[in-house]
Amino acid sequence: MKKIYFLIALVMISCFGIKAQKPIIVSEDSLRIGSSLLPGLSVIIPEANYAGTLKNWTKLLESGTKSKVVTENTEMTIFGANIKNLTDYPVNVYSILLDRDSALYLTAAFELKKDVYIERATGEAKLANAKSILFNFGKDQYIEKVSEEVKVEENKLRNLEKELGSLQRDQSGMEKSIRKNNRTISTERERLVSLNTELTTLTATIAEERLQYTSMEEGEARVEKEKYLKNLEKQKKRLLRAVTSSEKKINKAEKTINKATNDIPRNDRIQQRYMEEVAAQEAVLQKFLDKLNTIKGYQ
Question: In total, how many domains does the chain have?
Fold first, then answer.
């Protein structure tokens, strides 16, 4: 039950910083350029990045024309802009982009011909087209911003899953090591039984041969016996080295098993924590995805 409460707390803390999606509002407005007050439209774009939005707005205005946006203070002007779905001929566009209260305010006036601007008086169709262009532009900026947030949360989740995967591989390796070292211990213990049996027999043989050697008179037979005894001693030393080697392998394997046995519970606890963090981050990511999909559905 405590783990469930902990997971819920993680989700709530993580989701606390997620801003709910806000509407994109387009309205009829006016735009002051110099000393002139021009009829226009404005769009409120929530959360969007100012620099990126300014760049994208400039790109939209300059697309399909050789004309360039001229900026003086915050006022942007372009003559002869070819804006898709607005009109079949170039128009002049005056605009200002402001950053206020976690939202961008883009106001634009579209001049069809000298001193004639898109407004209700110039026809509902053109007004609707202009509103649609500003709305879709704002929507694209909002989507771009939230898409970046989604990528950030996806990377967080990917990193958590990577850490969890590393822990799981570590545990798998430790469990494999325990099995391998248990086999080593079993093999070496069997080998020790055989070596010790052989060593016991050889030790008894050496004692018996040495007893015979001490009772022999000088001569060729005694010399041969001495050589034989030296050979038996060499065999004994090899057996003793083999016994020592097996004991060291067993000791090393036991230490490895003990370490892995102690490390696995700790690894389990850390894995549990990461699984809870992964679950919490999945919930956070889903919130951002839901927000993004809601914005994509704006019409």
Answer: 1
